[in-house]
Amino acid sequence: MDVTQTVYLNIAGFNIQIFFHKTKWEFVYKKFIKETFKYYQGFINQNKPRKIDYFIDLKETSSLLTIIKKPQSYFFNLFDKLGKNRIATFYQISLIQFQMILREILLELLANNQGFIMHGSAVGKDNIGYIFTGRNGAGKSTAMNLINPKYSALADDTVIIKKENGRYYLYQTPFIEKNNWVKKGQKRYLINKIFFLRKAKFYKIDKIDNKNLLTQKLISQFWTKDEIKNKQFKTLMKFISQFNSFYYLYFAKNRNKLRALL
Description:
CATH architecture of the largest domain: Alpha-Beta Complex
Helix content: 25-40%
Strand content: 35-45%
Number of helices: 6
Radius of gyration: 20 Å
Distance between the termini: 54 Å
CATH class of the largest domain: Alpha Beta
Shape: globular
């Protein structure tokens, strides 16, 4: 195999092996390697894991990109599916496009392993995770920033929830977020509480017991795609029925009061 370098990523407990194939585009190859180690350093394993869950082949393509023309629109081939757990993509794609590929892979792996991705920020302390979610503008980034560093910032936009050995854990996603100072890695955090944020002039936590209401709220916050939608909905419904620590969090921009409340 014409592989010049191999990288192993561990994301949410899944091992992804990336093969960097030989290419005449040496400067593009070096740029891709550099970006991989820069943006995914917290997820990189130095040694080969016993089990590989997914394979990515990075290659050059002689035609650069396959262009399909439609009226007023152009499309290009982002990756080729080579098998059940293997794809090939190209050095000519961007970092954001590679992130889209990782998202597709993670959605597929999570759908088959009692997990899902949801919209939210998160913090952690002593191996325990807390998730903040809500509509756009609810204050997810604000809440995370206010209680950091007493509670370590874990996520600014997306989190992975996964059931392992009968318990629900929070994992960080490898995705680039607006607060790019958040340190990311492979560690998992046992989920303690999930807060639906509401900006207010007072500080209060109210438990949410209405499962129908929770279903409506969480459906609007979790990521899926058509091919796995039914399986993901079942995972989400099981999560709602088995996890009982959902709360409303009313807060304003006072660091000390919010920390005291939590």
